[in-house]
Amino acid sequence: MFKKFQSSTDISGQTPVKSSVQRSIRSAVLEQWKIEPETLEAVWPKKEGLVLVKCREHISIYTIHGEPIFFQHFDGPIYPTLRLLHKYPYILPMVRVDRGAIRFLLAGAHMMCPGFTSKGGYLPPAEEGLAAGVPVAIHAEGKEHAVGVGITKLGTEEIKRVNKGVGVEIVTYVGDDLWAIQSL
Amino acid sequence: MPAKKNRDKGDKSATAADPIPTTSEPEGIPPPESRPPVQVLYCGVCTFPVEYCEFGSSLTRCKEWLQEHDLERFNKYYSEEALHAKIGTLSLEAQSKLEQDTAKKEAKAEAKADAALKKKMASQVTIKRIERNKRKHVTSVHGLEAFGIDLKKAAKQFASKFATGASVTKNPQGQEEIVVQGDVSDEIFEMIEGEVGILKGIPADNVEIVEEKTKKN
């Protein structure tokens, strides 16, 4: 999503978000992420106004004090930025790819099913399986921190069954252009 | 929506596992305090979390940086043992190929950085005096962005220094330049020479002063 993203040309405007909209965003975040209200409060204090940064292709990035904290495509799910995810790694369900896939992930490739089902990979067990279209934190074999944020294209059980083709689409990864933007 | 259900379930288990005692209690469910964020050390060279440096394009410099800043982690990631553990998971062939790839990538990135620096050093800054009226001029400064200068800030600096209007505008070629009211070309040249404020790192040889007159005489 953030390949070839330039803050000079791809951002069309910044506006403070209305407090009523902020309230609905806050409740959406609390519903979508595994985050406690108290923790969210630490990330995004009620008194601090959220700023909406509109970008090309209907991407909206929300910033606090100029620092991006989460973003959204159309009215899709809200993704945390990677820096936020590193601080609070438990807010998204976790999947893990094997070591061989890291190289491709860092080049922005979507993650194929075998990367999750091989020895180094990890998918949640069947009883906690995820549906398709869920934001996930992508971790990597032997690494402590998340390497990317993605959205499942297939349910986790389906990934195990099909074991072919794209399993998780990459939304943002370490070293992409959103990563490069430290403040807006 | 099974996903949502799962999430709720996960939430509860996570909070139950949390041993930290709580102070505020909304809703009756065991409420956790705001958990402290995980501190991640980011590499000062490639900005990645340090464990991902090996996939970046500046591994050698990253290593040096980490050795200087956090020896403990350096030993964790780059000690003989760690390297051995890594080799264990990969075949020897794949390992050597990976190493080659990294070296190649690094060389490429270096060459790219060199080229960028060269280009930067070769790029010109043009200070143009444009005639408005017979006795009135504006000065346009073009090419500052090549030296990594924030045009908006530079315009602000000019405006406050000369007490005139200064703005960032697009010229007909679609490039951005700073237009300052009044004939201040010599002063701007001196400012660049003396590296005043944010105008840093521009070799004076790369600056030229041009005069532009209106076409009709």
Counting H and I runs of at least 4 residues, what is the number of helices of chain A? 7
- Overall outline of chain A: globular
N-to-C SSE string of chain A, H for helix and E for strand: EHHEEEEHEHEHEEHEH
Structural class of the helix and strand makeup of chain A? alpha+beta
| Largest sheet: number of strands, sense, barrel closure of chain A | 5 strands, antiparallel
Mean pLDDT of chain A: 86
Tell me about the largest β-sheet of chain B: 5 strands, mixed
Which consecutive residue ranges of chain A, at least 5 long each, have pLDDT under 50? none
Number of helices of chain B: 7
Radius of gyration of chain B: 28 Å
Class inferred from helices and paired strands of chain B: alpha+beta
From the alpha carbons, calculate the radius of gyration of chain A and give it in angstroms: 16 Å
CATH class category of the largest domain in chain B = Alpha Beta
Q: Biggest interface, which chains?
A: A-B, 36 and 34 residues
Which CATH-level-2 architecture of the largest domain in chain A? Answer: Roll
Question: In the CATH classification, which architecture of the largest domain in chain B applies?
Answer: 2-Layer Sandwich
Q: Roughly how much helix do the residues of chain A carry, as a percent range?
A: 25-40%
User: What's the overall geometry of chain B?
Assistant: elongated
Which range best describes the helical content of chain B: under 10%, 10-25%, 25-40%, 40-55%, 55-70% or over 70%? 40-55%
CATH level 1 name of the largest domain in chain A: Alpha Beta
What's the number of structural domains of chain B?
A: 2
Main location (chain A): cytoplasm
Subcellular location (chain A): Cytoplasm
Domain PUA (chain A): 93-175
Keywords (chain A): Cytoplasm
